[in-house]
Amino acid sequence: MTKFKGALIGCGFFAVNQMHGWNDLADVEIVAICDRDPERLKVVGDQFGIGRRYASAEEMFVEGGFDFVDIATTVGSHRALVELAASHKVPAICQKPFAPTLDDAKAMVAACGRAGIPLMIHENFRWQTPILAVRAALDSGAIGTPFWGRVSFRSGFDVFSGQPYLARGKRFIIEDLGIHSLDIARYLFGDATRMTARTARINPDIAGEDVATMLLDHENGMTSIVDVSYASKLQEEPFPETFVEIDGTTGTVRLGKDYRLVVHGPDGTTDSTVAPNLLPWASRPWHNIQESVALIQNHWIERLASGQAPDTSGHDNLKTFALVEAAYLSAESGKTVDIKDLLG
Ligand code: NAD
Ligand code: 89V
User: Fold this and answer.
1) Does ligand 2 come within 6 angstroms of the Cβ of 174?
2) In terms of CATH architecture, what is 126-284+320-343?
């Protein structure tokens, strides 16, 4: 079997999941890793038995020998690293958030287009088993035509211990987590045309907003609410579950706590559990996210082999990232923002 050879840049907190995911794919071999932090390079290199280790991404690309690169660094380095991959004509996966600004993201898409290489944003939440189940329920026609939806993530989980940088950024929940919820809204309800948002900072020890409520108008006439919070102290902590409510012309879909999915329509009601699989290397409560990493990586390899663009290509993800920008603009101005004004 011919294996796809990959390289990974950024060996931090989340990259370990990505390395496990690649390890599980029989037709993939990660041949080189890079991190400017020697300690992280050693930890990940030793854990996964990777011999080629680099402190400099430039040096790694010059030596080459891989078919794609997986960029798992934080947002500040995404543009430079994707442009570096494009300059070497190496297909690239880039972690969310796409870039610091929408202009950076557009430049990254353009650079990959000029180089003729695929770019996929690692937007994995739409690949979560429960979200795929909601989409399948919609596609089955069980609830008729959806006219209203809600994507909700409310938690009091301490994300700062694993990802301390999240407490320091001027932007927090929309850019880091809401970006996933907005992508789920696009995946389930279609592209959005207008955004109205309100934000709040409840935790005094962080720099950015930790609560956001967003109202979206969709191209197909649907209205949806995307609400996210890391300031919600619930009796039972649901992290990292996303809840979904959808009303259609003939029925309703509800995805609730513990991955319970209720689909009610003219043909009756189904009440099932759509829990993610607990992969051998995964741990609760992260297993839902971890499984979605494996699924999006499999998708990337399938599309790399077929030459088709991945579902969350850079081009596609500009539309999710525009919603992030729009939410901040709307919250700041108090006005509704037209998405086409941002995308041009
Ligand atoms: P982290 O800070 O733990 O790890 C980032 C690593 O990248 C660090 O080890 C750092 O030294 C290295 N690095 C940064 N710039 C570099 C460069 N130019 N060259 C080489 N190495 C460089 O961060 P993290 O929590 O692992 O997050 C990484 C990315 O993953 C972020 O964009 C974050 O939003 C994203 N993330 C995604 C998910 C998801 O479910 N999709 C979950 C968590 C984090
Ligand atoms: O998915 C993420 O991007 C993570 C977390 C779920 C902790 O917000 O940063």
Assistant:
1) no
2) 2-Layer Sandwich (3.30)
